[in-house]
Amino acid sequence: MKRIFLKTLALTLLVFIIGFYAGILFDNLRLEETKSRLTQIDNLWNDARLLQSYIQRLSDNKSFNCNVLLEELLKSGDKIYEEGTKVEENEKVNRFTPTIVIERERYALLDLQFWLNSIDLKKTCNASYSTVIYFYSYYNKTVEQGFQDRVLFDLKEKCGSQIIYITFPSDMDISTIEVIKDIYDIQKTPAILINESVVLYSPISMRELEKYVKC
Amino acid sequence: MDILIDAVNSIFIFVGLYFTFFMLLLFFSNKNKLFRRPKMERFPSISIIIPAYNEEESIKETVENIKKLDYPRNKEIIVVDDGSTDKTYEIAKEIKGIKVLKKKRGGKASALNFGIRNAKGEIVACIDSDSYPEKNALLNSVPFFKNNVAAVTASVFVKNAKGLMERLQEIEYLMISWSRKMFEYLNAIYVTPGPLSLYRKDILLKVGGFDEKNMTEDIEIAWRLMKNNYKIKMALDAKVYTSVPKSIKEWWHQRIRWNVGGIQTTFKYFNLFMKKEFGKIGTFLLPLFTISYILSFIGILFIFYNGFVWTRYFLNSFIFGFNPLSSLFYIVPDFFVVLMVINFAITAFYIIQNFKTINYNLELSKKILGILMFVLIYMFLFPFNLIHSSIKFIIGKYEW
């Protein structure tokens, strides 16, 4: 009888370990995918910086075509958003792989650059899109924050390119984000800054957001 | 909290895998002797006892069916009317060739004891008044009475399963019968079910008969026989069909009785925990029952916690105004998903082995639908029923 208990234990452990390693394998695959996505950020970031200096140079020249610039900005905005969503999904699921803090910081910097571009272009081209900036905590993910994430996710899905949706981890010690928080007097998270003028604190319902956002 | 939930999940998956593998290993190492039984040298005399309480509608059919059972010697059939308030006694009296006894209402165990004391056979077969053994059930069971075998149990199936609850119990009963045979190889059959169980009368009387205070006399007697180092065997091809609760209310009431009886028995014999000299009670059954109670209670907490999380999620979806369904079915292959898939595949294999071994005639579509309903809905009722039973046991508010 003892033998059958031990045999079962060995078999169960074996299957459990196989499952465990398969889990780690899937986690690693996702981590690799995340890292490769985040390395593309360099290109996106350079692109965003060039676009910004281009916008600034052309701002004196009233004859340039705003439509093309706006289209490109919104396109790259959607791409950054897609990349960010995918990275976040992978991070949520992974159990056994280390967090990718440095890559996340780089992603936040790209978002910052993109936001600045959108402000410039909005001013230069008198564009009508809304900007929605979401300040969240990277290290202290509360349940309430999770619900607020879902609202903003649905808002972006609903409005598409009509809104520029950017997320800022407010506790990653990125100096520019700290300055922005100070300027807009953002004291806690989750908080939402809409069109560089209105600051709302969670819980913020979809209905309330739709009052401020053109969608 | 996430780590705690992961840990609980891991324990459940591990225990689930362990139990399934354990049963499968037992099955494969004994596959060739599942239907083997000792050679019959002499047919002992047999008495069949049918305890009956308000069974005016079924008693005639039950007795007529029992009269037809194959056995090379005369069968003594005793109906014990346990103080019925209907016409059970009068109807039974009209049936020729049987003995009908009447006594004051005292419960099933008391009726069985009364019948045993009045029985002449060396073997007593106890049959519930709503159960119908197959013709060869006695012939297939009796040969197991060798050496220190004190009881032989049969495969219990559901009679005329029509409604959903009956169909779910049909699957459950199949699995229970199969598992009981596996437990025989560990000398750990922990119940001699009421629909049909056979006992050696002298041993039964020696250990004191059925416990009239226990809610499940068929569990208690099995443990007492084991405690006295007697063996219990299972005749897989001795089949008996029994009526089962049709509604969830009846089912709930029946299971409370089973659970309270199980808890009573566990407490009664808990002093044997890990003691080797009393059969497998101390070293197998008590640890198994204890672990299953603990896991059931953790499972309940887990179900409540998940219920709370999902309720909060859906309530907040209304408050915040997000679509609750958009990420509900978002499944990615992680550690748990991999283990769940493995667990599900092994469990499905296990259930298929059950069906194949018993050779039970069930349509494929009914099998698949039934198994899904069984795993996804029916099994979740058990821990809640256990909680209810435990409360009833603690406050002492239980009755037949």
Structural class of chain B: alpha/beta
Any idea what the radius of gyration of chain B is? 23 Å
Number of domains of chain A: 1
Helicity of chain B, as a percent range: 40-55%
Secondary-structure element series of chain B:
HEHEHEHEEHEHEHHEHHHH
H/I helix tally of chain A: 7
CATH architecture of the largest domain in chain B: Alpha-Beta Complex
Biggest sheet statistics of chain B: 8 strands, mixed
Beta-strand residue percentage of chain B: 5-15%
| Proportion of residues in β-strands of chain A | 5-15%
Principal-axis shape of chain B: globular
The CATH superfamily of the largest domain in chain B appears as Spore Coat Polysaccharide Biosynthesis Protein SpsA, Chain A
State the secondary-structure class of chain A. alpha+beta
The total count of strands of chain B amounts to: 8
Any chance you could write out the topology, listing elements then pairs?
The complex is a heterodimer of chains A (215) and B (400).
Chain A: H1 2-39, H2 41-58, H3 66-93, H4 101-125, E1 130-136, H5 143-159, E2 163-169, H6 175-183, E3 191-194, E4 198-201, H7 206-212
Parallel strand pairs in A: 1-2
Antiparallel strand pairs in A: 1-3, 3-4
Chain B: H1 2-30, E1 46-52, H2 59-67, E2 75-82, H3 88-94, E3 99-103, H4 108-117, E4 123-126, E5 131-133, H5 137-141, E6 149-158, H6 164-184, E7 197-200, H7 201-206, H8 217-227, E8 231-242, H9 248-268, H10 281-321, H11 335-358, H12 364-395
Parallel strand pairs in B: 1-2, 1-4, 2-3, 6-8
Antiparallel strand pairs in B: 4-7, 5-8, 6-7
Helix pairs in contact in B: 1-11, 6-11, 6-12, 9-12, 10-12
